[in-house]
Structure formats: C-alpha cells, structure tokens
Amino acid sequence: MHIYFTFISFVLGLVLASFINALLYRIDNGYKYPDIFIKGSHCEKCGKALKTYELIPVLSFIIFKGKCSKCGYKVPLYYPISELILGISMASIYYYSLDPIYYVLIIFMFTFSYFDRIYKWVPQITVNIFLGLSVIYFLLQSLIQDSIPENSILIGIGLSVFIWVLGKVMKKPFGKGDTLVLLGLSLLLNVQMYISFIYLFIFLSTLYSLILIAKKKGTFKSSVPLLPFMYGSMGILFFLNENITEIIGNIFY
Description:
Mean pLDDT: 86
Low-confidence stretches: none
Keywords: Membrane, Transmembrane, Transmembrane helix
Number of strands: 0
Number of helices: 11
Shape: globular
Transmembrane segments: 6-25, 93-115, 121-140, 152-171, 191-211, 223-240
Number of domains: 2
Structural class: mainly alpha
Helix content: 55-70%
C-alpha cells in the first residue's frame, strides 16, 4: 500500500504541476476570472484547442514529441521537466515520511522557478509570503520543542550577507528574491539538508553556465536565472533523501 500511495503522490504532483503551470500562464497573460480556471487550454502559437489526451502531463509531451499536433510549435522542455520534479518530490516526501511542510515548500519553489525562468524576477508578494511562512514554522517548531530547532538559520544569514557583499564587490547585485528564498529555506531545512542543497544548487547552476559558455551562448558575465536550479536541487534532495550526503561526499571530497 505504501508503494501504491507513493505512486498516487507522484501522479498528483504531475497533475498539480500541469495545473499550476497553466494557472500562472493565464494570470501572467491577463486572463480574468472565471476564465483563469474554466477556459480550455490551447496552443500558444496557433490557438488550437487541446484535447484531453493532449493535456496528460509528461506523457503527451513524449507522444507528440514536444510539438503542437497542428502547427508544430515546440513546447518548452521546461514544462515536462518541472512536472517531473514536482511529481518526484511529492512522491519522495510521502515515501520517506518527511515533514509535511515540504509539500508547501516545493510548490513555492515551483512557482518561483516559473517566474524566474521567464522574467528573471519573482513577484515580491510571493517571496514575502514564503519568508513569512518560514518564520512562522520556525517559531512554532521552537515552541513545540521548547528549544531552537537544528535549522541552518545562521548559515542562511551568513550566506545571504556573503551574496550581498559579493554583489557589491562585483557591481552585479544578485536578485533580492534569490537571497530571501535562500534565507527562508534555512528556516525550513536542517543543517545537513541545507548544506547538501547548496552544493547541488551551485553545481547545477555552474554546470549550466559553463555549457552556455562552451556553446558561445553566454559569457562569465551573463545573467542566469537561479531559482529554477534551486527548484531542481530541491527535487534531487527529496528524491535521494539521506543518501545525498554520502553522494556529495564522494563527489566533492
């Protein structure tokens, strides 16, 4: 039964990711209520109404080879990848019986990733809500345990200050949203998880930047959206769970 509900969690994650992607796209493109929720999905280029079987998360992307069945418009690879990450994350959180707050965390990271990928910024209201919920969770944990939880708040504060100083020195300030998200994560993750997350995040974002440079599509001064890599790193962190520390140790040490 545990495997069965893990699979259900995976499917729910895929469906939720597909729904949130569509919802954010509609909000971002000026859809009004109730069209935001009830208007049928369509191709972004030719406007073809999508049938039910064309909306199946990930599977429809594979079947139609990532293209619109009418005009051949290429669907961004981001969509199936983001759906898989949320599906795997939700399945992993259930399978390993992790703190339920991580369901909320991964959905916020999904939302941040969406906006940062397109605009390289995130609506401040969403970051403020995330940071506020992180503080409330930290305080509640402190009251319940009658002591300060073993979270990585000091590491988070130190990292945020370091990023701010680095931005000043390089005269290329990092996004305020990126810094606040890192700070919020330090309130939700224990020290081991947070450090592993930072390793993964730096590795993935650096690897992507080097690939762009190798393909001459970017330089060392190019701006790269960081939150999608934080989202991906969080998905890997949940999937590997306790094994992540050993894996990172073997790679970096």
